[in-house]
Records
---
Amino acid sequence: MNEDIKSTIEQALATFRFNPEGLIPAIAQQFDTGEVLMMAWMNEEAISASFKEERVVYWSRSRQTLWRKGETSGQIQYLKEMRWDCDGDTLLVQVDQKGVACHTGQRSCFFSAVRDGKIKTISTVKIDPSKLYK
Amino acid sequence: MNEDIKSTIEQALATFRFNPEGLIPAIAQQFDTGEVLMMAWMNEEAISASFKEERVVYWSRSRQTLWRKGETSGQIQYLKEMRWDCDGDTLLVQVDQKGVACHTGQRSCFFSAVRDGKIKTISTVKIDPSKLYK
């Protein structure tokens, strides 16, 4: 990364309002279709790594470590653009999702809905989850 | 609401994993264009009220009260469908947003981005904010 982009990232980080744990929610949206794929959390380090590596890096709250999306499963999210909201406490990350975002093998994690008065699964499994994590 | 939908909402609520404050993040997405408009928080009462009133009701963390989106500004979010993710800790609400979602008068709250190495405002004010809150 050149100095200009480093300075821009520092400026952006200074704008963000992290929660008391130093985290900010990050919504991943497929950049060209608008599909919302998942929501996870980032800290400063994850945000910097996402820009540097041009792929989405979250902070895993359960494992307390950086989580390079797709590192194990191969289902990488390439970073297209990072956006944030008016009060700087939520990120909307424009991504190019290879394969599927969800560990269940569905494209999006948001596959459950109340529809026609019932709870329904509104999409289908695209990749056998046993093939995602060997 | 009839008994069937009440029972469905109860089933859905039992699936959701609220945080220690009893809240769950809710992403609002315009149902027909896919535009992500904002993220706010809901509790059980806000979710039930959203279904009952067919408009989106959040929980205001700053005011500690139900927040009927658009009650003051007129910029109502009609509820089209409620979705949630694989681990039940985030909602993706499909809405029909009248006017604008953001208090700044922008359509979406996510109007800031790192683009071409710089921080940019990527949309324009649609309604003069002084006309939203009199």
Note: The two ends of chain A are 34 Å apart (CA to CA).
---
Amino acid sequence: MVYTELSTFSGYWLPKLEAELCALLSNDEPAVACHYDMMRYHLGWLDEQLRPHDFPAGKRVRPLFCLLACAEVGGDPAQALPAAAALELLHNFSLIHDDIEDGDAMRRHRPTVWKVWGMPQAINVGDGMFTLAYTAMQRLACRGVAAETTLMALDLFTQACQALTEGQHLDMKFEACPEVKVAEYMRMIEGKTAALAGASIAIGALVGGATPQQVSALHCFGRSVGCVFQIQDDILGIWGDPKVTGKAVGNDLLRRKKSLPILHALHHPQIGAQFADLLAAAPEPEQLTSVLALLEQAETRAFAEAQLQRQHEIGLSALTEALGEQGADSALLAFATGLLHRQA
Amino acid sequence: MVYTELSTFSGYWLPKLEAELCALLSNDEPAVACHYDMMRYHLGWLDEQLRPHDFPAGKRVRPLFCLLACAEVGGDPAQALPAAAALELLHNFSLIHDDIEDGDAMRRHRPTVWKVWGMPQAINVGDGMFTLAYTAMQRLACRGVAAETTLMALDLFTQACQALTEGQHLDMKFEACPEVKVAEYMRMIEGKTAALAGASIAIGALVGGATPQQVSALHCFGRSVGCVFQIQDDILGIWGDPKVTGKAVGNDLLRRKKSLPILHALHHPQIGAQFADLLAAAPEPEQLTSVLALLEQAETRAFAEAQLQRQHEIGLSALTEALGEQGADSALLAFATGLLHRQA
């Protein structure tokens, strides 16, 4: 498959995914309508006054990975739609709770659920969406997926949920922690980003009829894609073009975010101490040039890109293991590569 | 089975349940140990400094219902242990989040998780425990339960989770709501209390090999038991003996809690307005006598007890439908009746 086919694939399957999500969130009981309306607001289907609206949705990366993996191993993506919906709901549940935990008032240019309806209702809305993700997963069995396969898919799903909460635990712990090692950071993103990407692809492949070896190799491919995605995010957070990212130059430096490049520089034997001093004083935009010069000296960008390249190669090798020569031409790889080459 | 057998049953199975819970929460990775330690703290196994301790545990009502139902239909409770553990974890996850949502600083005479480790970590600890509840449920398939039966049990479990978040949504909505009808209150406790009691018994019966008709009737019995339990709680919240409950006389009146008796009095055609005035002014302990006299005049206690009796009868009839004559002698009924006759 080439990229034009990828857009055909998305164009065909994403509306079906939206219909699946819509059906999962439908509720006929007026007494609890507001509980589900808050979920619909978060997904961009309603505005703050709960009037129908069509805000830009997320990129649906995880469902697409799931459906593509299913197709790639010769399965029918229609059977994987409930899992694709479950993965999107799981991701969105985690965003609702993350926004509370991080105190973020805005997401996708709109007030977050807790900002509009308060923290107590928002926690519960997240719990409700988490539950609906399981409702969705369990629908696999109604689409002709064997009970044993559905249970295996549920195992992969629940492992990803567990990794997600472990990753979030580490992320919050690191914020209060003066010293975070690069290896600890990698462990955190494996939980917070990579596990769900891996599960998305593994579940799609499983439902599509892949062998256990293929499922395992594609799981590994997906985890690498997740790591690549996060490291690319970290690189863009410092060196991204503000015109494309919509964020300030060196945004992560100004926010003193513990991203991979920043942790590398903090631990650098030559410039570490000086970099730490500059960062501790919360650099002003006009000091950015000297901070960036330090990163240049420490070859921080080259380090981050080497990590990214390493994950990319692990991923490619796993993909070849799963799909053979076909892997290089797969829409899965085209989609993953598209994410890697994004500029925002 | 008679009551002495019930205590034999608990004495035999509760330690096995604790072992199952313990295994589910075990984790060998030091990086995320604290995530699981906070769960162990909540369950009473560790103190605030994360040192081993043995605080009084919860009553394990839901796991016992599950194991008893399994035994009652002729099944082996060992097979239902993962589900029993899942139900306890689900209940405890909901307590962790409820404590944040309600701002409660104490639970079982100890500071709540959010009070010790802060709200962001506590939300995530709850999410982690919710996930472990599913890990537990999925273990049914490893204990010889057929894949199709495990999926049916998961369906019952997820339906209960959904009802739980709907009930919690209503509970929070009612707090900010001047007018709550008795029927709305009953809908709330069906979600918040009855659904999980119903699922506990239905899942135990399903795993134990009950017919679909038995599962359905026992589900109904469990929901009634949950309602009876909550209404009894509401009655004790006003008329309970302070020496037994450990709470002040008329505790719910002083806290202006929207419980069943209070809603009945608020809607009473004769005393409603006067009662509302007294309650709105936040009654002092010395005004309690006149508030209680109003409730007497409105026959509020008799109303609540009639509701309780009604639920009790629905439950008994469902139990007879499920178990026939054997129902009247069942340990399930003995356990449910014990909960009904509790004084605290």
Note: The interface with chain A takes residues 31-32, 34-35, 97, 100-102, 119-121, 123-128, 130-132, 134-135, 138, 141, 146-148, 150-151, 154-155, 158, 161-162, 164-166, 168-170, 172-173, 184, 187 of chain B (CB under 8 Å).
